[in-house]
Amino acid sequence: MLQDDTIISCGTDGFIKWWSLAEIDAAEADEILEIAIQPLKEVQILTEQGDHCHILNVVRGNGIWLINDVKGRLWKVSSDDFSAKILFEYHSGEITDLAMSDAYNMAVTCGEDGMVKVWDYTRAEAYYSHKFAGKANCIDIMRRSEQNKGRVIAVGFETGIVRILELSDSNIELAMCIKAHDGPVDYVKYAPDQMTLVTASRNGEIFFFDINGHLDLGKQTPICLLHLSDCGRINDLKWDSHSTHILVATESGFVHEIERPDSAKLDTSDSYLIEDYPMRTWKIKMMEF
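Above: the chain sequence. Below: its structure as tokens.
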């Protein structure tokens, strides 16, 4: 930025530096094209914990600067003493999914930056957030019971990992980590009765887990793995209201109705993968117009 007789530069190291335009203009190179010039002044924008701002964009106003951070933060900086305050903290990049609580004025979002963020949507404020490794693709909140208090969520990641998280009053705590699929997890869905969790990967795999949201929040027992061959990518997945079936819509135009597996009737001693699992299938055809 040009200001009077100085050039102001801002970087991802959090520094704002002022340079003399006259000194730059008068600089002469001999045999090399790089000339060292000292800045007239420099300021680094930091959090109280010492994390520096990754400056992406700056808007200067009357007495304040607004700085957009690569990490998804919006800073307010005084143009007098350059004291800085974070106004908002968003996701840095795409928000990939959002889940709404049935118990509180709360929404939980996840993003390609691996961030899981808990929001109070009536106040437009973020409660807290936690950053995990890898891109987070999907999220779901377990329906409220006296045991789980509506504070248990599942998050599926690009790495094939599903993380079960519990929300405290001030933090997101990791309760369990499951390597559910080899490919990216695109859907995680709790059954309405809180007794089953289903996950779906991009290559057409569907994994059922036996859980208990009423008595034992630590229960996460694999039931079986199904594979929808030649279906293309799974575009949507929903439980029915009785928690007995799921509907799966695929990229190839097929819709599959799959009954919740009964672990007592399945032999998974060698593998959780069940071949030729019975299901109802429709081919959806749209009118040309």
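The first strand starts at residue 2 and ends at 3.
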